[in-house]
Amino acid sequence: MEEDLISKKELLELTGISYGQLYRWKRKNLVPEEWFIRKSAFTGQETFFPKASMLARIDRIKNMKDDLSLDELADVFSIIPSDLKMDSTELVKRNIVSLQTIEYASPTFGLATVFNFEQTLFLYLLEDCLQSGEMSIDEGKKLIQTLVEQYAKFEGKPCDLIFIRKMGVTLFLLLTSGAEFFVEPGVKVVLNIPIAKKIEELKLILTSS
Which Pfam families is this protein grouped with (predicted)? Predict the structure, then answer.
């Protein structure tokens, strides 16, 4: 479903930010270039934004800008992996993932004790899915395998994780973010997770403390 749009004039009035702030944040990559949408209006060409995404992003920026620099904020909002590596003890100690989740991923990750950002993201997704109560341990192991084998094909572009089930048969899909998809009758969409949002969450956790 296409997201509602908000005009630049309405956005500035609603959020109280200035024209200069908006375009400074754009130059710093705090707001994606593709969110600036030029459309025809009765007054001529105007700039619009995806309303829900833009309001949520501005709210986050306003809440975090006193604690992080604009460059640090840009890194948080970027889906590009950081160069972080963290060992399993630290991941568990900081409640990013549980020891059980690391053990569940071991058939795919082997006996690794140090994880890069992408591996940490996969563990974080697995933890989230298992905690939701909607995914079994065996399904979680398949999820990790799917992410390892398929995620790199998006080459840094935002994608969504779709988990569907029908009559006990499960399937994972990775789709370009915002892409429409349709399923046959009887198929339940169990989880639909924007991975870019999980990357942002994870980076915020890793940035704190």
Answer: DUF4004
Residue 39, classed as helix, strand or coil, is: strand
Query: Within 10 Å of residue 164's Cβ, how many Cβ atoms?
Result: 18
CA distance 53 to 56: 5
CA atoms within 13 A on the CB side of 203: 21
Query: For residue 135, what are the CA distances in angstroms to 62, 147, 207?
Result: 35, 15, 28
Largest alpha-carbon pair distance within the chain? Answer: 62
The answer on pLDDT for 19 being more than 90 is: yes
Dump pLDDT digits (tens) for 133-184: 999 999 999 999 999 999 999 887 889 999 999 998 999 999 998 788 899 9
CA distance 153 to 156: 8
Nearby residues of 37 by Cβ (< 8 Å), 6 or more positions away: 5, 47, 48, 49, 50
CB atoms within 10 A of CB 46: 14
Other CB atoms within a 10 A radius of the CB of residue 153 amount to 9
Closest C-alpha to 4, from 37, 26, 30: 37
pTM: 0.78
Q: What is the pLDDT of residue 83?
A: 78
Query: For all residues of the chain together, what is the average pLDDT?
Result: 90
Instruction: Give the torsion through C-alpha atoms of 83, 201, 172, 143, to 10 deg.
Output: 60
The two tokens of residue 34 are 């593709």
Rounded CA separation 116/133 (Å): 26
**Edge-to-edge strand order for the sheet containing 5-7?**
5-7, 44-50, 37-41
